[in-house]
Amino acid sequence: MNRSSALPVNGDMSTERTPTLISDLPGPKPLPFLGNLREFSRGGRAHRVMEAWTDQYGLTYRIQLGGSDLIVTADPAHIDTILRNRPDDFQREQRTSATIDEIIGPGVFTAEDDRWRRLRKVATQSLNVAYLRQYFTTINRVTDRLVRQWDALASSGERIDVLNWMMRYTLDVTSGLAMGHDLNSLEDTGDGLHRRIPMIFPAFQRRTRTPVPYWRYVKLPIDRRLDATVREMESLVLARYGEAKMRVAAGEPPSNFLEALVKPIADEPAITDQEVVGNVFTMLVAGEDTTSSTAAWALHFLAEHPEIHAKVRAEADEVVGTQRIPGDPATVGRLKYAEAVVHEVLRVQPVAPIVGAQPKRDQRLTGRDGAELHLDQGQPMILLTSYGARRDTARFPDPDAFRPERWLEGKLPPEALPFTPFGNGPRFCPGRNLAIIEATMVTSVLGRAFELNPDRSGPPVTERLEFASYPTNLYLHATPRG
Ligand code: HEM
C-alpha cells in the first residue's frame, strides 16, 4: 500500500502522523503453510488464545490463517468505530458470510447494504418489545414444558445434559417466533431437529477454515447429515411460508417473522424462496445456540455458587409469589438479581466473543491511544469483543470472580464499551431483549424449583468456540427443592 493513499475516513484529515500498516503490527510468528492455525485452534478456544496474544502483543496485532493475514483488535476505540460504521464503511467478513450463505441461504446476518436494511427492519419489528409482550404466552408455555421435563429428570435422579435441554428450550421459543411453528423439541424423544440444528454453527466455522471446498465435489458423512438437516428445514419453512402467504393475502396482520417477510415493500425486489429459508434459518440458529449457551452457563454458576443460588431463589419467592412461572413480562423485569446473573455470564463466558469485519474501502482508524491504523480495502479483521470485560480492572474489579452484584450497584449500565456482548451500532443484535428474557426466566424458574449440584463424574466443565462459544461437559444433578 502507498502510505499517502490512506483515506482519513475516521481520522483527522489534517493529521501529519504516519499510520501504522499491517506490516508494522506485531504478532505471533507464523509457521510455513499453517500460519498460526495450530496455536489458534488449540483446545477449541480461539478467543482465549487471542486474549493471551493481546496480553503479549498489545491491543492490535496480526495473525496468519488460511494463507491470509488478519488483524485482531481488542482496542475499544477501533471496535466502536468499526461496529458503528456499518454497513457504509465496513461489512461482515466476506469469507464467513459466503460460507453461511452457501449452507443456509442468504439472511439478515450476512446481507449488506439495501438488502440488509430491508431485512433488518423486519427482524427488528418481529423482536421489538411490543411484539415480545404479545409473544410472552408462548415463552410461558415453553417454560412450563421445560420445568415439567426437569421435574421428571429430578425424580429419575439421572444427570442432566444442561446444554442439550437449554437448546431444546430456546429452539422451541425461537421457532414459534420465527415461523409460528411449535417444534416441541422439549418433548421430542427421537432424532428431531433439535439434535441436528446444533451442528450448523460448527459447520460455519469448519467450512470457513477449510482451504479447499471439498464438499462441493465429495460429501463426507458430516456433510450429508448437514445437507439433510438443511433440506428438512427448507421444506418445513416453505410449507409454513405457503400458509403465511395465504393468511397475509386474506388481510391478516403479520404475527411472526415469516409472515412479516411476505409483505411486499415498494421498490424492493420480491424476496426469493431461498432468502425466506435463509432468513428463518438465521433467526433459528442466531436465537438458539447463543441463548442456550448463556442459560446453561447461568445454571452452572448457580450450582457452583450456592450463595448466589440462594439469592436467585429468595428473589423468585418474593417477586413471583405462589405461581411457578412469572405470568407476564413485567414480572420478569423485576427479577433483577437473576438478570444480573445473566449479565455476569455474558461477561465471563460471552457466547459471541468475536465479530468479523472488513473495510469496504481504505480506512484510517484512530486507536484508544491516539495512534492511527491504516486498513486496506477488504482487510479481514477479528474484533475481540470479549477482551475488555475480562481485563478492564478499573471497571470490573476482580474480573475473574463471578459476581452478579457488580451489575446491581447502579454504576454499570448493562452494556457499554468495552462490554458489548450483543455487538454495537446498526447491526447490534436484534434478539437481545428476547435473549435476556429467556435466560432470566430459566435462571429464576429452574433455580427456584430445584437444588442443583455439579456432576463431578466426568471431565471438568470447559468451553469450545465453534462460531459461538459453548460449555462442554456441563452436567448437573437436580433434585426438587427441599
Ligand atoms: C445471549 C444471546 C445472544 C447473544 C450474546 C447474541 C449476540 C449477537 C452478536 C454479537 C451479534 C453481532 C452483532 C454485531 O455485528 O454488531 C448478533 C447478531 C444477530 N443476532 Fe444475536 N445474540 C443473542 C441472541 C439472539 C436471539 C435470541 C436472536 C433472535 C431470535 C438473535 C438474532 C440475531 C440476528 C438476526 C443478528 C444479525 C443482525 C444484523 O446483522 O443486523 N440473537 N447477535
Major sheet details: 5 strands, mixed
Query: What is the CATH class designation?
Result: Mainly Alpha
- What is the count of distinct domains? 1
Topology as a string of helices (H) and strands (E): HHEEHEHHHEHHHHHHHHHEEEEHHEEEE
**CATH architectural type:** Orthogonal Bundle
Q: In angstroms, what separates the terminal alpha carbons?
A: 68 Å
Quaternary state, please?
single chain
Question: Low-confidence parts lasting 5 or more residues at pLDDT below 50?
Answer: 1-15
CATH homologous superfamily, by name? Cytochrome P450
Helix content: 40-55%
| Count of alpha/pi helices | 17
Judging from the principal axes of the Cα atoms, what is the shape? Answer: globular
Structural class from helices and strands? alpha+beta
Instruction: Say which molecules are bound, naming each kind only once.
Output: protoporphyrin IX containing FE
CA-atom Rg in angstroms: 23 Å
The CATH topology label is Cytochrome p450
Describe this structure as you would to a colleague.
With 482 residues, the protein is of the alpha+beta class. The chain has a single domain, classed as Cytochrome P450 (Cytochrome p450). It is 48% helix and 11% strand. The chain contains 17 helices and 12 strands. It has a 5-stranded mixed beta sheet with strand order 1-2-8-5-3, sandwiched between helices. It has a 3-stranded antiparallel beta sheet with strand order 4-12-9. A two-stranded antiparallel ribbon has the order 6-7. Strand 6 and strand 7 form a beta hairpin. Helix 12 runs parallel beside helix 17. The N terminus is likely disordered. Protoporphyrin IX containing FE (HEM) binds next to helix 5, helix 12 and helix 17.
